[in-house]
Design goal:
Distance between the termini: 55 Å
Largest sheet: 8 strands, mixed
CATH superfamily of the largest domain: Bira Bifunctional Protein, Domain 2
Number of domains: 2
CATH topology of the largest domain: BirA Bifunctional Protein, domain 2
Strand order of the largest sheet: 1-10-11-12-15-9-8-4
Number of strands: 17
Order of helices and strands: HHHHEHHEHEHEEHEEHEEHEEEHEEEHEE
Helix content: 40-55%
Strand content: 15-25%
CATH architecture of the largest domain: 2-Layer Sandwich
Shape: elongated
Amino acid sequence: MIDLRQLRDDPERVRASQRARGADPGLVEAVLAADERRRASLQEFEKARAGQKARSREVSKAKGEEKQQLIAATRELAQRVKSLEAAADSAVEELGALARKLDNVVEDGAPAGGEDDYVVLREVGTRRDFDAEGFTPRDHLELGELLGAIDTERGAKVSGARFYYLTGAGARLELALLMCAVDTAVAHGFTPVITPTLVKPEVMAGTGFLGEHSDEIYRLEADDLYLVGTSEVALAGYHSGEIVDLSAGPLRYAGWSACYRREAGSYGKDTRGIIRVHQFHKVEMFSWCRVEEAHDEHLRLLGFEEEMLAKAGLPYRVIDVAAGDLGSSAARKYDCEAWVPTQGRFREVTSTSNCTTYQARRLDVRERDPHTPDGGNRHVATLNGTLATTRWIVAILENHQQQDGSVRVPEALRPYLGGIAVLPPVT
RNA sequence: GGAGGUGUCGCCUAGUCCGGUCUAUGGCGCCCGCCUGCUAAGCGGGUUUCGGGCUCAACCCCGAUCGCGGGUUCAAAUCCCGCCGCCUCCGCCA
């Protein structure tokens, strides 16, 4: 939900945002008109209601015959109030339905356009030249099988396509990576959190995932609960309905959770290995901060992601995602993509979004406004960013492989693997 | 899953039996002022939240708001129905 006051004050800004996203700018007019209707309808109801309350007070004072007459005379007014209230309710409802269609207002500087219109901000690290090294790199699944680390066949046998087992070195590598991510987050002041992975509909809706991406999400019919695709959902819900204190700076959490995705629209894409799977693990950063601080906080989250990529020793690039490819909650999004040698291209391994007040508005998370004297409340900004996921294993295996099929462990991860420097083939 | 209890403004609390100045009481905390003078105590005032009047601030007025949603009624914190959270006990299962 965007700020309706901002929409009224500066509709052109929202129209421009809609255009940048490739969405309908005409929606702005529709929302403004609905807002007019809501206020008119509300005023009418409130005026009638005030009259009714005045009459009701007279009734309470009157006696006998006079009282009976007053009651009879007020009956009609009560009916009128009831229907005006219903009208006002539906006007509010209609406004809400329209306003919820508006995606977050895109931050200035974000590239316009769709999925392919991203801008590459920088490329970091050196890609290995396997020709010069004299061997053909194996892909992550082949390596995973050599190391006894990844078993997709049994995953499919037990749970179906896009499921897998991480075994032995694979399981340890995942735990090491995620622990390293948690420690990195803690070092930067984040509170580690293990979150629920089943959430209520209002929380899922509050984070903006029930819009166009709703078919990506698993739902448990019998209990009316959703499986989260990221701990962002549970972390966003954590402070819902609360007034938080940001006077000492942002509230930062690092969520650790399993993540579930239906991958409904991706038949035939990335079917080999564990690049695109229904279930994986992730450490996710989540910040609550003042709107004024959101831009800087966003760049900080991006910095922490790059720090993790450096620890994993991965060559990567940073892209500024185009407006049309942002989720409905995001005003700006940066992805880090790691180089995957056998694919000859970069694949997304992190994503950080500045959601400004969009999520906080839906989830009703506010702070005491530091700018008004008697402390009105205002909505806060939310941001999220990936620190590590199961997919990183793909990049780590491929980028650090050696000719004999063994894989070098990045130095920063070794302490988490009992000091092991190389993962040897087991077959 | 079953039984009982419970949910009132930031926190605690009165009010609910028996519907009507409840326009929700008091305390704590917080804010402003006074007195005192230097970490105290006292005095006076203010303080639910959201929306609207209304374009910023102040003031004022109006509406909603007593866990949530319905209903009855001229009138609901109060009566009725449904749901949810929490507590206690029982059952079942890790």
